[in-house]
Structure formats: structure tokens, C-alpha cells
Amino acid sequence: MEDKTIYTTKEAANYIGVSPSTIYRMEKQIKSPDEILDMFCAKEIDNDWSFIGYKPSDTGKWTHSYHRYPAKFIPQLVERLIDGYVSDKDAHINDPFMGCGTTIVTGISRGFKASGTDINKIACLMTKVKSTPIEPTYLGKKIKQFLSTLSFFEGPQELQFFEKIEPLIPPKHIDRINYWFNEENKNELGKILRVIYNEEDKTIRDFFLVAFSHILKNCSIWLQGSTKPTRDLRKNPTKAYNALRKHLKRMQKGNEAFYNVVPREARENLNNYLNIKIDDARRQPVSDDSVDLIVSSSPYVTSYEYADLHQLSTIWLDLADDLIEYKKEFIGTSYKKYENKKLKSKVAMDIVYKMSKKSKKMAKEIEAFFIDMEEVFDESYRILKPGGRCCYVIGDTRLKGVDILNAEVFAESLQYSNFKLDRIIKREIPLKILPQKRDEKTGRFANNNDANSEAYPVEYIVIGLKE
Ligand SMILES: C[S@@+](CC[C@H](N)C(=O)[O-])C[C@H]1O[C@@H](n2cnc3c(N)ncnc32)[C@H](O)[C@@H]1O
């Protein structure tokens, strides 16, 4: 008699003698590490995602040009993902690695809820200020008042001497401040900071603090264009007040444009829409099954030491008591290693093993990075609604001759956090948006001239679906 039973994959595969792990993968439609590597090899660049014709005025629109930030997204990429994947008008967007807040600003601009974290305190301040539209006439008045209190800087030098504003220079960081700033700018910045802290409206005070933080590099002897903290003793730093005045004008214009796009309901009840925290990516400030879409780009292993890069802001705004302890909190830093946590990704294990033959220390750092990211993906799964997606933007790189296949590892790891691997987009990174080169020995980003390896001419958007 004909057997009409529909056997499960497990029953049928068991009969054929397929291994338990393959059965598990078949049942959950998980791609094996080899399938993933093949998939990436065969992947073509999707030119639609390169945004080649976009000008700085497009990528720096609204509040997006408030502050420089290494490896930040272009807003158009986030917009396309949100518009493609979100249809609910009450959607909730999340970014566990907010950086300067590109995803969060985009979510708010669409009238969506936006939540996220960054361990970098200055990044959280930027995100908050960039996502907060301020009534333009009120802001205009505040900027005018503020600049007029400081307008003695426009007069002759002798008069400035008699101005009795006591500079506010954080005493515990005085050595670092002396290391980076000349006497004149140190005093000018100290007076500006004093006036900023006298501002009673916190929203306005934070707005000024972001402007202040943005000008610090140009006002210091930090080597122009360098991502590494290097001094240039021949540099002629920009005068602080002039730089600030100019940048505030730019921010004022950006705020007005942003104010006009944010739906009124979100503008007037921002507290119900914006939920961001200085915290680790593995602790999102939201409940289970509540997020529609995650759009994020993680740090890279041993590339940027974000705490070092923002040290000028950290010292002036007094954001960390102990820089070394602060640095240990960052994912991807060279300050981390684990003894008792185990990797799940086979592709990651291979990379760690290959690296261990070149540098045991770097192998440990890479292992810690991928373990941390596996935990971030678990947290992404927890907070997404069924049907929700996470989109991680990441490039591959090469360290000490070993290919660090970040994107492939992310694709594999997402599956172990229960995501279905939904889509991989391969995109070319237009020049000028990200640094193109990395130093192959240290893994750090370098100026195009100094570096001896290609960094990210292409990157991937790895998308996981919570079914
Ligand atoms: C590539 S950047 C994100 C840039 C962001 N997409 C943007 O458009 O500005 C990665 C971010 O991860 C943050 N980060 C590093 N370790 C973290 C951790 N443990 N938890 C949360 N954020 C962390 C860094 O401070 C940095 O801002």
C-alpha cells in the first residue's frame, strides 16, 4: 500500500544518515559556513546602493553635519533601508551602535520611535542634539545672545585681556589640554565653555556643547586630517571663537531644515519618540519584541579607538575619570580579551586560528570582538518584533596578512542568534565618505598616503530576519 505520510526532514534525513548538525541546519534553513563563504564570493556589487552622485550637501543635510564622526553612515543608506522595510506609521527603529546618530535622526525625521545606545559619551550627546529639533526663532535668539556675550573676542586683543570671564578649564585634565592647545586657544575655549555652562536651558546648552566639541580638533595642534591622535607642532590652529561662530551658523541652518521635516506630533512629544542611552550594545533600553527595524554599523576590531579619537571632547567636557577603564568598555578595542567565553562562528574560529600564527595577542582581540558581536546579535533578536529585521553594515579587512571576514562572520553568527539570513547587499563605498586605507600592521585606519593596505573599497549590508 502506498505510504501517504509526510515525513519530517529529521525522519527522512535520519534514514539517509545525515549528521544531526546538518539536520538541524536543514530544519532551520541555516546556511553552513561553506555555503556562506560561497555566497559572498558569488556576490556582485549592487550599484544602486553606492549613492555615487550624492554631494556633501545631500549627505550633510539637516543635522547630519553637526559633528564629524569616523565611519559614519550616509543618511541615504539608512533612509533606503527604513523606507524599504518599514510600512507601519508607528514604527520603532533601533541602533545599538548609534555613533553620531544617523539612524536615530532618520527615524525621528520620519516620525518613528527611535532607540539605541553608544558606549561613547560624546556620541550620545551628538545623537541627542542631532535628533532634537529646536523651534528656529527661539534657537536664533539664543545663538545671538550667546555670541553677543562672547563678542569681545571680535575686538582688539588688549580689550580681551580685561574681559573678566573666568576660563573653565577642567583641572584634572590640564596636562592633556596643555599638550593639545596653545595658551591663547586654551583661554578662549575656557571662556566659551564657562558661558555655555551658564546657559540654563539644557537643550540649548547641549546644542552649544556639540558645536564646541566639533571645533576642538581645528583649534588644537591635532594633525589635520589624521584619525590618529598625532600632534603637529607647526600647525596654526583656528581661533576658537571664529570657528564656533561659523559652525553655529551652519548648525542653525541644519536645525531649521530638520525642524521642518520632523512631523509635528514627534517634535512636540519628543520624549515619547527618542529613547537613547549611554550603554553597551548588549543592553538596549527597550522591551522584548518591540522594534521593527535595526540599522547599525558595528565598530571594527582594533581599528578606531573611539575613546582616543574623541579625547579632546572627553577632556574638555570632563566625560571620563579614567581613560583606560573607559576604553575597556568599547567593543573592538585592543584592551579586551576573554578566557571563559566561546565563539560559535566557524568562520570566526578559522580567522582566530590563522591570526594566532601571526600574533597571539591580536588573535585574542579578534576572538573577543566576534564573541561580543554574537552577544549583540542575541540582544537584537530579543528586541525585534517577529517579522522585524536587523541590518548590519560592515566591511571585510586584512590584518597581518590574514583576511578578517567580518561580514561573513556576521552572516553566520546572526543565524546562531536565531535569525534567518534574509539578504546580503554588497556596495561600493564612494571615495571621501570613508577612509579607504588601513595600516596592515596595526589595523588602524590611516591616511591614504601612509597606509599599506586597502581598507573597505566595498562593504556589505548583512540582513537578518526574525521569523
Ligand atoms: C562605526 S561606529 C557607528 C557609526 C554610526 N553608524 C554613525 O552613523 O555615526 C561604531 C560605534 O560603536 C560604538 N561602540 C563601541 N563599543 C560599543 C559598545 N560596547 N556598546 C555600544 N556602542 C559601542 C563606538 O563608540 C562607535 O560610535
Describe this structure in words.
There is one protein chain. Helix content is 46%, strand content 13%. With 467 residues, it is α/β, with parallel strands linked by helices. A 7-stranded mixed beta sheet has the order 3-2-1-4-5-11-8, with helices on both faces. Strands 6-7 form a two-stranded antiparallel sheet. Strands 9-10 form a two-stranded antiparallel ribbon. Helix 8 runs antiparallel to helix 13. The model is unreliable at 432-436 and 447-455 (pLDDT under 50). S-adenosylmethionine (SAM) is lined by residues 69, 71-73, 97, 99-100, 102, 117-120, 123, 280-281, 297, 299, 306, 329-331.
Considering the chains and any ligands shown, give keywords for the structure.
alpha/beta; single chain; 467 residues; 11 strands; 7-stranded mixed β-sheet; binds S-adenosylmethionine; 13% strand
